[in-house]
Design goal:
With 244 residues, this protein is mainly beta. It has 3 helices and 15 strands. It has a 7-stranded mixed barrel. Strands 6-7-8-12 form a 4-stranded antiparallel beta sheet, with no helix packed on it. The longest helix has 10 residues, at 108-117. It starts with 15 loop residues before the first strand and ends with a strand.
């Protein structure tokens, strides 16, 4: 995977960092648009609608292998909250376009790098994380208490035979808004949740979610993607640059 995504504005090789991970759970939830509007910055971003009147949030937990940033980082876990927005089709046609609302990590050096290089809203240092690859579950908390307990909604484990790629346009910041291309390449199982069927875990009221009262809102699970914990996967993440 050496191609630069079409439309990326600074295609130097050193503009890209490759992260290796060995387990991730990513769940998309439907939510009323009005509840999501306060999450967007002032600017040109527009909420995407899964169905009329319903937008999307995504919660992704990742277990990264040791050795990131040229060997500086230990194994660590990350949690990202984002909201679905309409893509910038003048750049490329992504699988998803997301505005990143909050990021947490068990590694302070990773948080510092995320703030500077990716312009990500690194929110908090995670202090307690449980990763269960056999049951496909991840629970995350900090000193303020539990944030999320994520789990597979499927009663089976069937992953793609070959690694699948997902291109994401990631937007961050406010005045200016920054953008980046992020590619996940992994063997995955992808589960469509008709009508919100399936237990995908719990989200707790916590400052990580900002103004989003996740315990009061009716969040409907739509799609869940889980990477094969027995196979090392890759994340190709490009430097965030000013957008519009």
């Amino acid at each position: 995977m050496n191609e630069i995504p079409r439309g990326h504005r600074q295609p130097e090789q050193n503009d890209r960092i490759i992260w290796n991970y060995d387990f991730s759970i990513s769940t998309f939830y439907g939510c009323e648009l009005q509840a999501l509007l306060p999450l967007l910055p002032d600017g040109n971003l527009t909420l995407a609608e899964a169905i009329p009147g319903i937008g999307l949030i995504n919660l992704t937990a990742v277990n990264f292998r040791a050795g990131g940033l040229d060997g500086l980082l230990p194994e660590f876990q990350e949690l990202i909250l984002s909201v679905g927005v309409t893509p910038d089709l003048s750049r490329n046609v992504p699988n998803f376009a997301m505005y990143v609302v909050s990021l947490a990590s068990t590694c302070e050096l990773h948080l510092e790098h995320s703030r500077e290089y990716y312009k990500l809203p690194a929110h908090t240092l995670l202090t307690k994380v449980s990763v269960d690859r056999e049951k496909l579950q991840i629970a995350l908390a900090n000193e303020r208490g539990p944030i999320a307990s994520l789990k597979s909604c499927a009663e089976y484990k069937e992953y793609s035979t070959e690694p699948q790629e997902r291109l994401i346009q990631a937007f961050t910041g406010n005045q200016p808004i920054y953008s980046s291309d992020c590619i996940f390449r992994a063997r995955v199982q992808e589960n469509q949740l008709a009508g919100g069927d399936g237990d995908v875990g719990l989200l707790y009221r916590h400052p990580f979610f900002g103004d989003l009262a996740v315990d009061d809102l009716e969040l409907i699970p739509f799609v869940q993607m889980i990477s094969d914990p027995d196979v090392v996967a890759e994340q190709y993440y490009y430097r965030s640059l000013p957008w519009k």
